[in-house]
Specification:
Shape of chain D: elongated
Number of strands of chain D: 10
Shape of chain B: globular
Structural class of chain B: mainly alpha
Number of strands of chain B: 4
Strand content of chain B: under 5%
Largest sheet of chain D: 3 strands, antiparallel
Oligomer: heterotetramer
Largest sheet of chain B: 2 strands, antiparallel
Strand order of the largest sheet of chain D: 5-6-8
Chains: A mainly alpha, B mainly alpha, C mainly alpha, D mainly alpha
Number of helices of chain B: 20
Structural class of chain D: mainly alpha
Distance between the termini of chain B: 54 Å
Radius of gyration of chain B: 23 Å
Chain lengths: 493, 539, 101, 779
């Protein structure tokens, strides 16, 4: 297979970005701003969906597509990578779709938005496919730099800039840790290839203090990206400040790519080494998991801002996924499949939730506070129903994707003997029900304060489409998860 | 016979609910009639469960479709003599509840009817599911519509009540989910194949200490739903705030989920743990019976009184189950039905005056027997059914439960004392019910507002008539019901006892071999000596 | 004889200085510089290690990449800082605390 | 042990005796029609319907009675089996491996005992229905009243005819319900409603005992229908004489053992039910309050029929009671104490119905003494005669009350004998009967009770007979006294009513007086059915009643016979009781013939405390209120306020929620919004991870197998381990990469195992205790 075809998902994302950029520069005429922007959103969405479709198209080519020697084994087009590429393409496409409506409504429709999204997706996909730590890092930076820009996309907004600033500073800080970890592994293994590092770590190098230090630094760097406690603190600020479509993008695409990297680094590079034994990284990840679930959920209860609440919830969800990572560490293929399936489910339900939040907001009247949603169920039943569905899914109740994803992760964790973590996780789920449902309560059971208007949804077909897609996928993954589940099970490296 | 009858039972209300979503909001009459038609059609369908239901223990009309093969999850439904009646109870009470809210629900009718039909579908599904995954899905699915019904169409503190209801139930069911996963994981290890199927999982024998934890998780979920003392405090709030129809469904069907869960899942899956914890749970049941009754007695709010009476009555059901005798189990199921009918009707009745006066405080009424004679008469009949007067359904159920408990020397060390204590619940039941009746209906008419109350109207009478009829049918000729319950309850209890013996000294999980249960021979538990005086044991 | 260990100790020291600088300094520009310091510590480790693993140039190549990425990062970072300054007329990090808890 | 299968328990389909069906169902039909359509029917129609149903039922009963009587002794029973009601499955009765099934049929059975009660219930019931048409002629809701009355008749017939204990229990609770409904018939008065409720609840307390009795019998006999139970009890009495439980313990060197037979416990449980229904100590408290109901109700339910159900039931279950001497003693003693106790209260009451109520309680006590000493025929005979004279008294009282415009205080009456002659004469007849005036019906039945109490089997009762006799004689004296006090205060002397009332007093209509006449005549004459006392006088009059009943309920019970040695006392006893009764009547005549008695007041004034106490009915109600009711109230409040609200909701539910909230609140404080803090958290997190990974873990697991211990330490990067198995501080092994080690202990017991682990960073030491048990090896 030609290298072009093999890398086509990645290349399609890059191409999408380029086309969007060119269209923005060349086709744009001052007179017809809005039209072009709408076109840009559609181009980006279609492009990213197409790349997801390409990733799925490559599925049939066996567990791993053979790549020419010239690429030197720095990337692998394996089903693991493809699954992530597809998830990222889906998530990126959906968030571009949301942006199509959102940016226009809020008057921040600048053309660079879409190329940034596409390039960020490409970086994320590269991260997921990288088998070389350098390439992984390049992917990560490509993704992150674009997101830093996107987070501060509302240049006139103090919150947006503040979020971007914090995200950027801490992101760079974390990247430095990651890099130093990579450098130390290079010191030990004389290579940045994951496979070679793994080989080296299985030998004497595995018990060197440098290896321990490298592991610590890598855990910090990757822990930051997945917003695991205690590296999570940027998350609420960045999520709250960023424009809603960007928040959606951050919460799913960036997180998915970071988990892909985490899985490869921990399971492949450190798998089977002494540092991968129970007192090595697994105990740290177990701590991350418990702390993330608990802190995320406990603090989310207190949030009045929906985006911030969803930020804490995303911290909690990272905790659930980490339970799956631990299950994967125990060797069951279901563990890794659980992580993959969870991330896919999380992508659709969280983007759906953000899409609904974005939907309920007119210019200068964004509905971000819980109280803004009072009584919307009466006025806008369909949108409220959709948001309620996503909340139910995030809670993890059947028949939604969130339920099955949790069930699958928990089951694989129990298979791996990790039932104490599962108990913690289910108790946390119960806590989370409180704040997710609080939004449902507000929408369905409360009336707006006297005099306060009920939040108005924007008239945006794009966002509505995104919501419908997400809702259908949430139900599909909840009711008929089999097909995607078997794909997740096949997604090896 | 109707093909795929069980699926149809689940699907018809669900499809009806979805159809309602696409109906225009501006035609409330049409929406109401449509929902009613759907629920009546479901009821009609459910009547087809009756033919062929007698004769053989075990599940009938099973349908199995592979669903999520990698986890061994199947769409597996089936009905037996126990679930059949509960399904019928569900399909009967739903149209009644819809009719009861015919006029009182005006706002957001579409959502209301949607919730109700969805709820019906989920309830039927819960009773029919024979796959633990499917069961859990329906179990949780029930939660949301009920939550909305309480929270959207409820009374003043409806949000508090709805959230409390939801979180209470959710906390319990999530631990049950963890236990289900653990159980299936064990099955996977032992059997070498994944399955969530009830019939597979009941073949799994677990060591007693493992059983204990899993049973506790299951029991927590079910006990909250029952609700067992001391996990009952959501119930009074939920009942008081829920609209009448919601209370009816809650009392008539939803609470039965808990006891059904014990009988269908918790006890057969973990027989040794059920045996070990039997006295404890039985003791809590008795605490519930007595304290529930006493607290009910002192309630100023009629609905709250009835809610607490549910705590007391459901304590009886739990006691019957914990006895682990056939009589106890049959009585428990029978009492579930009776309680469903009687308490459902009680909530309807409280709703009748609430619709007129918009207060549930007992002291607001008094002497209305003169003003509303027909209402008073129906109320009296239902009240008597509720306190288990012979000739009404409650009597047979309570008698069997008490007798089942009384004869259960296997389950308790002091079954007689338990039965006696529970028996005081019968007395206290009379105390609070009669005192409610006296305060509402007897005495002089103190409140002028009551003088103009109208008696039952046709719609209300139609709601109540089938329930009143059932009260008598269940009391005077319960044999057809009991016969069908008994064939399965007996089988269940016998299997449980056999599994108890096999699992007692187990140190590692193993599978039952086919036919192993029936080979275990005599059913007398020789380890616990029967006290003297009881036939079959002692001197 | 200078061993790899010496280089690494130096590298760790510089990285630590960068880290501490990031944590304690309130000026955005100094914070950016601290990040540069950290990255350069990494570069030092990589280049030094490559000397002791002469079979390939992976370390040096990585260092080049890092330099490029650091440049991009600085560009984005400065852009954000400039925007921030425009809006808030300050480059102090503790002024950016509108969102909390 | 003879198994059940040896006894033919369920004979093949018996000949259905259809006549029982209309007898039972006609009143139910009347109740249904009047209940559903009563408000739309004309008063006359209601009356006609209700009376017709009961009259027809009575007529059919007579037919049934005659047909029954035509049968030979051994075959005197007729059954109608309607359908199987339900089946109870009990575990493994009679040592059988299989679960045991008790089918319970809806079946009615007529035997001499039932037939006797049947005639009383339908006969007296008919009369009282007729009377009610007059008494309730102006009531607002006749439909409801007659519906209840018919319903009561129906329930009573189910009670009487029920073939098994559960069916009897249906009637048993059914009559309780009707009693509740009828006591509270005029429900717009709070106290009426309360009285009804009290009756129901106290009855329920008794019913619980009844139920427990049923349970015990079901478990020990495996059957619940009367003939079957009787057969099992006769063929396998050990099923009932086995101890129910064994309560033996040693206290201060005394060996205390209590192993009551099942029969004893079951009998006492059933008797608790009977005491509730028949208003015996300590459950009698509802009956006086029940007088709140309309007077015909008091006559029918609370005098003639329902309250005697307890006696009927004990007679019905005679085969059980005769197996337990102590059980019977409990019955007899309770009866005797109640007889006297209630009589004392009746002395002081001023409400005409209250006096009669307490006299009912007292007379019921006599009946229980009779059945308690095994003289079932006598007990039932007293039921019958009591039905006549007490119904007559109540109906007479009702007649008076109507005349007095619903005033019931006897101090306001007097002088009615001229104004209401028919009422007066019938009342007098009944009063004579209850007082035991020679050769009235009450004389014969009461005297027989006295005699049997003395004469029955001294071996079984020890010193009881003379005590019982003394109590009963005292009761008889009190009865004669207070009844004549009542009679004189109501009918004798001058009228004390106000002018207005006096002007309107007139004799009641014939619908009311006709029943009075019939019942009055029966009060006098019914004794001739079984004039045992005449035997003592040497007259050999046939004992029709005994001949009719005894074969069924006293035959085959050799344990309870007449003690021949007391035969000589029979005649003196007849004399003594007559003299006592006459003396008491005379005393009443002296004090009360002209109205309220100054002497009595003086006597009361000399013992004011005692008088007040008796007047206040010994304050038993208050005692119950202060103890049981109040503690229940307290418990209810505690259950709600302390447990539900505070403990469960407050601490458990809201406490958990609050803790969760509070934690969240504290944790979010860290989130200050400043980049440096965030970075610091990251740096600290990194250091924490580093620390955790750098310091080696000393976790290990130990498996004890016999005396050898296998330890398995956690795996870690570059870990090296060394062990000290005996905790003596010296390392038993050298540092090595091997994680496992094994050690064999010489001694069993607790041992401290220490592990030191080192890695590239540092080293750490951990301890762990292992317990080695000797001689136990794992499988």
């Amino acid at each position: 297979m030609s290298v072009w075809l093999a890398l086509s998902p990645l290349l399609a994302m890059v191409a999408t970005g380029l086309v969007a950029m060119l269209v923005d520069v060349l086709v744009r005429s001052p007179a017809s701003d809005a039209d072009t922007r709408g076109d840009l959103a559609i181009i980006t969405t279609v492009g990213l969906f197409a790349s997801a479709a390409l990733a799925l198209g490559l599925w049939g080519s066996g567990p791993s597509v053979a790549l020419p020697e010239s690429l030197g084994g720095v990337v692998a087009v394996d089903r693991f990578g493809l699954f992530f590429a597809a998830t990222i393409g889906l998530g990126g496409g959906l968030s571009a779709l949301i942006a199509g409506g959102y940016l226009a409504e809020h008057g921040i429709e600048r053309g660079e938005y879409y190329p940034l999204i596409a390039f960020s997706c490409a970086g994320a996909a590269l991260m997921a496919m990288a088998t070389d730590l350098l390439v992984l890092f390049v992917g990560l930076e490509t993704m992150s730099l674009a997101v830093y820009c996107l987070a501060g996309f509302r240049r006139g907004s103090r919150k947006s800039l503040e979020g971007a600033l914090k995200y950027f500073l801490l992101g760079s800080f974390a990247a430095a840790f990651l890099l130093f970890g990579i450098a130390l592994l290079y010191v030990l293994a004389a290579s940045t290839r994951i496979a070679e590092i793994s080989e080296a770590l299985r030998g004497a190098a595995g018990s060197s203090p440098i290896a321990v230090l490298a592991l610590v630094l890598l855990l910090t760097g990757l822990g930051f990206k997945i917003s695991a406690v205690p590296f999570h603190m940027w998350t609420p600020d960045a999520y709250e400040g960023a424009p809603t479509p960007v928040t959606a993008f951050m919460s799913v695409v960036v997180k998915a790519a970071a988990f892909a990297a985490l899985l490869r680094v921990l399971l492949v590079a450190f798998g089977g080494t002494a540092l991968g034994a129970s007192v090595g990284w697994p105990q740290i990840v177990a701590f991350f998991a418990v702390a993330s679930m608990s802190v995320g959920n406990l603090v989310a209860i207190w949030q009045k801002n929906v985006k911030r609440m969803l930020a804490y919830s995303s911290i909690a969800h990272a905790g659930y996924v980490l339970v799956g990572v631990l299950a994967a560490w125990k060797g069951a293929p279901e563990g890794r499949a659980g992580v993959l399936f969870y991330l896919l489910s999380y992508t659709v339900m969280n983007i759906g939730a953000f899409a609904c939040v974005a939907y309920f907001g007119r210019r200068d009247a964004e509905a971000v506070h819980t109280s803004d949603f009072a009584g919307v169920a009466r006025q806008h039943p369909a949108a409220a129903l959709a948001l309620a569905t996503f909340m139910v899914a995030l809670t993890g109740m059947p028949p939604t994707a969130g339920f099955f994803a949790k069930l699958y992760v928990f089951r694989s964790a129990i298979d791996a003997g990790l039932w104490p973590l599962v108990v913690v996780a289910v108790l946390n789920s119960a806590v989370s029900a409180y704040y997710y449902l609080n939004l449902v309560v507000t929408m369905y059971m409360r009336s707006p304060e006297p005099g306060a208007p009920v939040a108005q949804p924007m008239r945006s077909g794009a966002i509505a489409t995104a919501i419908v897609i997400c809702a259908l996928l949430v139900l599909h993954l909840g009711i008929w998860p089999s097909r995607l589940l078997s794909m997740a099970l096949e997604a090896g490296w | 016979m109707i093909p795929h009858l069980l699926t149809a039972l689940i699907a018809v209300p669900a499809l009806g609910a979805i159809a309602i979503l696409f109906c225009p909001r501006q035609t409330p009459r049409f929406l109401r009639y449509f929902a009613m038609a759907v629920s009546l059609a479901t009821f009609g369908l459910s009547l087809y469960l009756l033919p062929g239901s007698l004769g053989r223990a075990g599940f009938r009309l099973e349908e199995t479709v592979s669903w999520i093969p990698s986890l061994g999850i199947r769409y597996h439904v089936g009905v037996d003599g126990i679930s059949m009646w509960l399904v019928l109870l569900t399909t009967l009470t739903t149209p009644i509840a819809l009719l009861a809210s015919w006029e009182s629900i005006q706002s957001r009718l579409k959502e209301y009817l949607f919730s109700f039909l969805l709820l019906e579908s989920a309830m039927i599904g819960t009773f029919l599911a024979l796959d633990l995954f499917l069961f859990y899905v329906f179990w949780e699915l029930m939660l949301i519509p009920m939550y909305l019904i309480i929270g959207v169409w409820g009374g003043g503190r409806r949000i508090y009540a709805a959230v409390k209801f939801f979180l209470y139930t959710m906390a319990g069911s999530l631990l049950m989910l963890a236990a289900i996963l653990y159980l299936t994981s064990q099955y996977d290890t032992v059997a070498g194949k994944a399955s969530f199927d009830y019939l597979d999982l009941t073949r799994l024998l677990l060591p007693p200490d493992t059983q204990l934890w899993l049973y506790l998780a299951f029991a927590l979920a079910f006990a909250i739903k029952v609700p067992m003392w001391p996990l009952h405090t959501w119930l009074p709030d939920a009942h008081v705030e829920a609209p009448t129809a919601g209370s009816v469904i809650l009392a008539a069907v939803l609470l039965k989920m808990g006891t059904y869960g014990f009988l269908r899942f918790a006890i057969p899956l973990f027989p040794n743990a059920a045996h070990t914890l039997g006295p404890t749970i039985g003791g809590l049941a008795i605490a519930g019976i007595i304290l529930g009754a006493l607290v009910a007695w002192r309630q100023p709010d009629a609905k709250k009184l009835v809610a607490y009476s549910s705590v007391s009555h459901m304590g009886f059901v739990m006691l019957g189950l914990m006895a682990m005798t056939t009589a106890g189990a049959v009585g428990a199921v029978l009492q579930m039905l009776n309680h469903g009918v009687a308490t459902g009707a009680l909530f309807l009745l409280v709703g009748v005056v609430y619709d007129r006066r918009h207060t549930r405080l007992i002291e607001e009424y008094g002497g209305i027997a003169k003003i509303m004679p027909a209402y008073a008469a129906v109320f009296a009949v239902i009240m008597l059914a509720s306190i288990g007067l012979p000739g009404t359904g409650g009597f047979v159920g309570e008698l069997m439960i008490l007798l089942g408990t009384f004869s259960a020397w296997r389950a308790f060390e002091m079954p007689r004392l338990f039965a006696l204590l529970a028996g005081t619940g019968v007395i206290l039941g009379a105390v609070y019910m009669l005192s409610l009746y006296r305060r509402m209906f007897f005495g002089p008419v103190r409140n002028e507002a009551n003088r103009t109350l109208g008696d039952l109207v046709g719609r209300e009478a139609i709601c109540l008539a089938p329930l009143v009829a059932l009260v008598f049918v269940m009391g005077l000729y319960p044999r057809p019901v009991i016969a069908r319950i008994e064939q399965d309850a007996r089988q269940t209890i016998e299997d449980v006892r056999a599994k108890q013996r096999l699992g007692r000294d187990l140190t590692e999980a193993r599978l039952l071999e086919p036919g192993e249960l029936s080979r275990t021979g005599e059913s007398i538990d020789l380890e616990v000596p029967a006290p003297p005086g009881v036939p079959g044991g002692g001197q | 004889m200078i061993t790899l260990g010496h280089y690494l100790v130096l590298s760790v020291a510089i990285f630590t200085v960068g880290t501490i600088g990031f944590v304690v300094r309130r000026n955005l520009l100094v914070v950016l510089m601290s990040i540069e310091l950290q990255l350069n510590a990494v570069n030092l480790a990589l280049v030094a290690a490559n000397r002791f693993h002469p079979a390939s140039h992976a370390g040096q190549v990585t260092a080049f990449f890092i330099i490029a990425i650091a440049a991009a990062e600085a560009a984005v970072g400065l852009a954000i800082v400039v925007s921030f300054f425009r809006l808030r007329h300050t480059v102090r990090t503790d002024e950016a605390d509108r969102m909390r808890h | 042990m003879p198994g059940l299968n040896e006894i033919s328990l369920r004979p093949g389909a018996p000949d259905q005796y259809w006549l029982l069906l209309p007898i039972v169902l006609l009143p139910a039909l009347g109740a249904l029609v009047n209940g559903l359509f009563g408000s739309r029917l004309k008063r006359d129609t209601i009356h006609t319907l209700a009376c017709a149903m009961v009259f027809t039922s009575f007529a059919l009963s007579v037919v049934a009675f005659l047909q029954l009587a035509a049968l030979p002794h051994e075959a005197r029973h007729l059954t109608y089996r309607a359908y199987e009601w339900f089946t109870v499955t009990l575990p493994a009765a009679f040592g059988s491996a299989q679960d045991y099934r008790i089918p319970i049929d809806v079946a009615f059975r007529l035997d001499p005992l039932a037939a006797t009660m049947l005639l009383v219930v339908t006969g007296v019931g008919s009369l009282i229905h007729l009377y009610s048409t007059g008494y309730m002629a102006h009531d607002e809701s006749p439909g409801r009243f007659f519906s209840y009355m018919n319903l009561f008749t129906f329930a009573m017939l189910v009670l009487v005819l029920g073939e098994s204990l559960p069916v009897m229990f249906v009637g048993w609770e059914g009559v309780g319900l009707c009693s509740y409904l009828l006591i509270g018939f005029w429900f717009d008065k709070d106290e009426n409603a309360k009285a009804g409720m009290k009756a129901f609840i106290v009855n329920r307390i008794g019913d619980l005992g009844f139920l427990v009795g049923i349970f015990l019998l079901a478990l020990s006999l495996g059957v619940l229908s009367f003939p079957e139970m009787e057969q099992v009890a006769a063929h396998a009495p050990t099923q009932l004489t086995k101890p129910a439980f064994d309560l033996s313990f040693s206290l201060f060197g005394w060996d205390i053992a209590w192993r009551p037979a099942i029969a004893t416990i079951a009998a006492i449980c059933l008797f608790v039910g009977a005491a509730g229904k028949s208003a015996q100590l300590p459950l009698y408290v509802w009956l006086p309050d029940a007088m709140a109901g309309p007077t015909p109700v008091s006559a029918l339910i609370h005098a003639a029929t329902m309250v005697t159900a307890g006696v009927y039931m004990v007679a019905r279950m005679h085969f059980l009671f005769v197996l337990t001497a102590s059980g019977m003693a409990v019955v007899a003693v309770t009866g005797a104490l109640t007889a006297v106790f209630a009589a004392t209260i009746a002395l002081t009451q001023n409400d005409i119905k209250k006096v009669l109520a307490y006299s009912t309680v007292s007379q019921l006590g006599y009946m229980f003494v009779a059945v308690g000493v095994g003289a079932h025929v006598t007990g039932v005979f007293h039921v019958v005669t009591h039905a006549f004279f007490k119904a007559c008294l109540f109906l007479g009282a009702g007649s008076v009350i109507v005349a007095m415009h619903h005033r019931q205080d006897i101090r306001e009456m007097g002088g009615l004998k001229a104004l209401m002659p028919r009422t007066r004469w019938t009342f007098l007849a009944a009063t004579l009967a209850i007082a035991g005036f020679p050769f009235t019906s009450g004389f014969f039945s009461k005297d027989a009770i006295l005699w049997h109490a003395l004469a029955r089997d001294s071996g079984r009762y020890g010193i009881l007979p003379p005590i019982l006799l003394t109590l009963l004689l005292a009761g008889a004296a009190l009865t004669a006294f207070y009844m004549f006090r009542l009679y004189f205060l109501v009918f004798g002397g001058e009228s004390r009513a106000d002018e207005d009332t006096l002007a309107h007093i007139k004799e009641s209509p014939s619908s009311m007086t006709l029943p009075l006449v019939v019942l009055g005549a029966l009060s006098i004459a019914a004794g001739l059915l079984n004039p045992e006392a005449l035997h003592a006088l040497g007259l050999n009059v046939p004992l029709t009643f005994e001949g009719w009943l005894a074969p069924g309920i006293e035959e085959g019970v050799p344990a309870v016979g007449i003690a021949e040695m007391r035969k000589p006392f029979e005649l003196p006893l007849v004399g003594a009781s007559s003299v006592i009764a006459l003396a008491a009547m005379g005393f009443a005549w002296i004090w009360y013939r002209r109205g309220p008695s100054a002497e009595a007041e003086r006597l009361a004034a000399r013992v004011p405390g005692l008088y007040a106490l008796v007047l206040d009915k010994w304050r038993i109600d208050e005692l119950y209120e202060a103890t049981i009711v109040r503690s229940l109230r307290w418990l209810a409040r505690a259950g709600h306020e302390a447990i539900d609200k505070l403990l469960i909701d407050g601490i458990m539910v809201h406490g958990v929620a609050g803790a969760v909230n509070l934690t969240g609140r504290v944790v979010r404080l860290v989130q200050t919004g400043r980049v440096q803090v965030y970075a610091m958290a990251m740096a600290l997190g990194t250091l924490g991870i580093l620390y955790k990974l750098a310091v080696p873990s000393t976790d290990f697991e130990a498996r004890v197998d016999g005396r050898s211990v296998t330890v398995n330490a956690a795996e870690g990067a570059g870990y090296e381990y060394r062990w000290d198995f005996d905790g003596d501080g010296r390392w038993d092994t050298q540092f090595g990469a091997e994680r496992r080690a094994e050690h064999r202990y010489r001694k069993a017991g607790r041992h401290e195992v220490r592990l030191e682990v080192r890695n590239a960073f540092t080293r750490s030491v951990g301890e762990h205790e292992v317990v080695v048990r000797p001689g136990r090896r794992r499988r």
